[in-house]
Write a structure and sequence with these properties.
The protein is α+β, with helices and mostly antiparallel strands. The protein folds into two domains: 15-168 and 228-317, BirA Bifunctional Protein, domain 2, CATH 3.30.930.10; 331-417, Rossmann fold (3-Layer(aba) Sandwich). It is 40% helix and 21% strand. The protein is built from 15 helices and 16 strands. An eight-stranded mixed β-sheet has the order 1-5-6-11-10-9-7-8. Helix 1 packs antiparallel against helix 5, helix 5 (137-153) packs parallel to helix 9 (229-244) and helix 12 crosses helix 15. The longest helix has 20 residues, at 15-34. The two termini are 51 Å apart. The protein binds one RNA strand of 77 nucleotides through residues 1-2, 5, 8, 59-61, 64-65, 82, 110, 112, 114-121, 124-126, 128, 193, 204, 207-210, 257-258, 275-277, 279-282, 304-310, 334, 336, 365-376, 382, 384, 386-388, 396, 398, 400, 403, 405.
Length: 422
RNA sequence: GUGAAUGUAGCUCAGCUGGUUAGAGCGUCGGUCUGUGGAACCGAAGGUCGGGGGUUCAAGUCCCCUCAUUCACCCCA
């Protein structure tokens, strides 16, 4: 191939498919707005430090997946691998946390240096919401129900919701101690990566999928037994409220999530239609994050959903517009020669300004070819001007469904078209 | 980062153990129909066979390297 190609793990999203993205984006905007969230847009790249501390060293994202580079002034910058940390950074920078609660949503590209695979790309798109200043379980369940509502509106009804509680700083520390103690005795049976994590980030061993680890973990202590009474109460309330909303959630004590900033509630929503990368949505509570990033001690909850994965599932559900559709026109303008085209240009413009979808074939091909294209465009009306029409000063207006033809003076055309389309 | 499979026309794919000039369907464009569409029929354009090197009288086909895609591992959206 002589020309350049899109970099590995990136894709061009082409016209028929972009229509589906637009539908999804609108649906996200509407759903978030209904739940009381307002949109925030942050830069595509941030200072590297914005991600390293909050996400946590020892996590895959920080250790091997970040696109980090140095700019011409020697600053270390990173293409955002997720959006929670940037949102917190922006909220602190602009003092948005001065009036609580603060509810924000976002959508846009993220970047992770990974080996591409179905449902996983180096540039992917996520949308998500963050709710600050709400310590109670109502906020946890609002976030979950928001995510499920967006999925429902995208036509995704086949999913699995799993939740867990990681406890707060104090009870998590006690659990970590117990877990390390347990695993250290069995370190020889653990996989090499898990053995490595034992000292760096032991909780991550819990969601290991290595068969060897799995056997060991069956006997391992779980977080449940270590939750302090406040955390246990919070988790119980979350589950009760979910049940009251008719939302089925499975308690999976092995869910720890890939980022260090989570506390208490964590959850994942997965689809059975995606192969190995089946997590569509992940999120949870991060009561310590704002403070860890240099702000006041303000609790937060949020979620992030992968847009490519949503589309993958939604396409199977058939709830999105067909990918082979062309733009739907109201009127097609057919000019048979240059003079006719020039005559129609202002009329075309007037019709468009009246709010109708109109287009003209500029290729100057034969009338039958133009009408055929007009029919394919879904237009109900065609406006035809050639030598004959120019002689009389009236265009031929043809109903593309009934094939009826009438002559209409050029001056009255815009109003006439508007009446026919009304 | 590891493993496996796959790269031939815009798209979906043929091309048998190497053999002459590279194939089909769909799509595109043109004609039949000189100014009235969707059909049918006829025709055309479009390929350095992903790229580079090697073996051979001869490579789309075999070997090596490389790039990319797909699937899985790891992990995540």
């Amino acid at each position: 191939m002589k020309h350049s190609t899109a970099p590995r793990g990136t894709v061009d999203i082409l016209p028929p498919e972009t229509a589906q993205w637009q539908v999804l984006e609108r649906l996200i905007d509407e759903t978030c707005t209904r739940f009381g969230y307002r949109e925030i847009r942050t830069p595509i790249f941030e200072s590297t430090e914005v991600f390293v501390k909050p996400i946590g060293e020892g996590t895959d994202i920080v250790d091997k997946e970040m696109y980090t580079f140095t700019d011409r002034a020697g600053r270390s910058l990173t293409l955002r691998p997720e959006l929670t940390a940037p949102v917190v950074r922006a909220a602190l920078q602009h003092n948005l946390l001065a009036s609580l609660p603060l509810k924000l949503y976002y959508r846009g590209p993220i970047f992770r240096y990974e080996r591409p695979q179905k449902g996983r790309y180096r540039q992917a798109h996520q949308w998500g919401v963050e709710c600050f200043g709400a310590p109670g379980p109502e906020a946890d369940v609002e976030i979950i129900s928001l995510g499920l509502e967006a999925m429902r509106r995208a036509g995704i009804t086949d999913y699995r919701l799993e939740i867990n509680s990681l406890g707060c700083e104090t009870c998590r520390a006690r659990f970590r101690e117990a877990l390390v103690a347990f695993l250290r005795d069995r370190a020889s049976s653990l996989s090499p990566t898990s053995r490595d994590r034992l000292s760096r980030n032991p909780l991550r061993i819990l969601d290991s999928k290595e068969p060897a680890d799995h056997d060991v973990l069956l006997q391992a202590p779980t977080m449940d037994g270590f939750l302090c009474s406040a955390c246990a109460e919070h988790f119980a309330a979350v589950r009760t409220l979910l049940e009251a909303m008719g939302i089925r959630a499975l308690h999976n004590p092995h869910i720890v999530r890939g980022l260090d900033y989570y506390t208490r509630t964590v959850f994942e929503i997965s689809s059975t239609h995606l192969g190995a990368q089946n997590t569509v949505c992940g999120g949870g509570r991060y009561d310590g994050l704002v403070k860890a990033m240099g702000g006041p001690s303000i609790p937060g909850v949020g979620l992030a959903m992968g847009m490519e994965r949503m589309l993958l599932v939604a396409r199977e559900a058939g709830t999105l517009p067909a990918r082979d559709g062309k733009p739907a026109l109201d009127v097609a303008f057919v000019a048979l020669d240059e003079a006719s085209a020039h005559l129609l240009v202002p009329v075309l413009n007037s019709v468009r300004r009246l709010g109708y979808a109109a287009d003209m074939d500029y290729t100057r091909r034969a009338i039958d070819k133009q009408l055929r294209a007009a029919g394919d465009s879904g237009a109900r009306w065609a406006v035809i001007v050639g030598e004959d029409e120019r002689a009389t000063g009236a265009a031929t207006v043809q109903n593309l469904v009934t094939r009826e033809r009438v002559r209409v003076g050029l001056d009255e055309l815009p109003a006439d078209i508007a009446r026919r389309l009304a």
